[in-house]
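Two proteins were folded this term; both appear here.
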Amino acid sequence: MSAVFAIEDFACEHLKPKPEAGPTIRPNSLSEIDVREAILEDLALKTLYASGSISVLDLSEKLCVAYGVANELFSSLRSSHCCQVTGMAGTVPQIAITSEGKSRAAALFSQSHYIGAAPISLNNYVRQVRLQSASTRDVHLQDVQRAFSHLVIEKETLRQVGTAINSGSSLFLYGPPGTGKTTIAEVISAVLAEDDVWIPHAIEVDGQIITIFDPTVHKAVTTSQARSCDARWVRCHRPAVLVGGELTAEMLDLQFNPISKFYVGPLQLKANNGVLIIDDFGRQRMRPEEILNRWIVPLDRKMDFLSMSCGKKLEVPFEMLVIFASNFDPAELVDPAFIRRIKTKIKIGAVSEDQFFDIFCRVADRKGVRFDPSIPQRLIDFIRQTLKQELRSCYPCDIVDQVCWAARFDGKEPYIDRPSLDQAIKAYFSQGPGTSVASVA
């Protein structure tokens, strides 16, 4: 299969799908909410302790619950002498914590420092994740062609990529370095990101809080969320999580902070309903077989098991497209039983001379760099004849960048002629003893 080249700041222009069904009904009373009243009452008290004097309306916004829920919590705390009314703003009480409330809040903080949006139940989370599975997203050839229009890529490769997206399961991209595997993976995530899904701030299990929403991963939809929706959820684009050689076994399980005393969801929990990219697969601190042993059941059955510090095991959805990108052949990394569970394998190899020329012209045009018409062929000849290498799609961008950097240093407009090309080649390629740029006519 031919390789690809990424053009920065691309935009996917395929048809905007309808938002997934979500938590559009906001609970207006404690009887309608899906977690125990005691959990919310404790959270409200800690919020009051941390905030000082606030209104019941402020409390509802901090907890991401309806005013009616916050008002019931206030009434319960007031009846137990944990808070008192300090004034009124219209019909809304202004409240403050009492000394008795402070003592109780201090004890609660010793158990967990979590304050913020009220959590949802694990059952509610599982139901919603299954409802908005990426495998329900139908992608067609024209959608993929639009998303990949900024790349030089063969139609057959696009077809394989589209099939992998529709599977919502797993994909193995492999081939030599610099052929565009990571780029393909990132564009795939951009295709899926056109969908809207609902991500909870946190979930509650046996009184323990597990945070899921992460603003570095989950990009909230810019349109304002309807007041009728359950604000404990955030409407986001489908997430994309990318991890490389830094991946460790600890990152794949619940992470309990002994200081804050609540859990942070692992990578795959944050990637649910989106894409998880394992870049440079085979170069992690975990051995490849360890990763796949960990995920042999999730890849096959769409469910994962996470461990809490108390030893309790949680069964959670594993609803994402997992993309492994590697410079190694799959057969060199793991045994056939594991490879079978990775549903699609696509080899991304070298480009042809015509594709290389096309890539070079696109790059130069995007960067506004003029060049001598003989330059692309001269670069091709050097790579093939002098270096005895195949043509990789990363070379045009890297060489043009070298010319641009040198031009900035010299304080002039970049122009690629033979001298500037030769200078870029010397700076970029690792040449063996006796290899000379001048050996190319």
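Next, the second protein.
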Amino acid sequence: MTIRQLACAFLALAGVVFISSVGAAQQPAKIPRIGIMINGGPGPVVEALKRDFAKAGYVEGQSVAFEVRYAEGQLGRHTAFAAELAQLDVDAILTLGGPAARAAKTATSKTPIVFSIVTDPVALGLVASMEKPGGNATGLTNLDPQQATKQMELLKEVLPNLKRLAILSDADIPGADHTGLAPIERANVAAARAFGLEPQVLKAKGPNPDFESAFAEMEKAGAQALLVLEVPITLFNGKHIAERATARRLLTMFPGGQSATGGVIAYGTTVADTWPRMPALTNRILNGTKPGEIPVEVITRRDLAINLKAARDIGVEIPAAVQQRADRLIQ
């Protein structure tokens, strides 16, 4: 080969290398895709999550992409959503609520799952233990083993003659045993009986719950108070439930952080304390930590809010000692 031919060959080779390098440089960097499954529809929860991710450096459209699936109260839709997100091969699936978490866990043993608003992750089969999840899921829970007991204590303090307690739950939450009760329901029934109360569990079913029938059953059983559990159907319909209870002069106790419903008492841990921690857990997973190696975080802060106006409307006087312990008094 002549010197000219060698030079042409060299330039051609250099050109190929140069073009390939430019092409590689122009390829956009892959950003993580995060699936989100939520029981309700578009609203403040998902927007808050996105803001918290942005604070952690994951800005939507720049350094992260979100695949959000809304069940709109139809919890059975989570099965298809979970399968779809697993097929999309997202980098993580965030689930808000037990039904969403169970659906995701059933759909994939590979994709990392970060859950919240789950009462008992072990009982639902999401993790092997709180300290060592051991699979592809971890997350946060506001599970407070003492909450049911503390709520019964407070109800008895406000209504010393309380005997018959209605407990409102959701027919679609998972984990029911042979008695038909899910873990959160069993815990509250046991606590009520320990205080000598007669518990009556009523389960409403979405997306169009028949609360009228539920309240008719409460009235028939002579319920003196209503304990509202932290389940999807009540989270969607809190104000409606409080209004119906007030009309029947029933003392109501909602979960912590739900004073905006207009119920008389809101007490306990709150799911609102779990959402801000989800980006931090997801970040650890995206940086290489396996979900099964991340202990489930437990929220233990209890919040007590008392609506004195609502109490007056049903003719109940809140003891001064209880008012003094409240984090907020609503006049």
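The chain has two domains: 33-143+272-298, 147-268+302-330. Confidence is low (pLDDT under 50) at residues 10-24. These notes refer to the second protein only.
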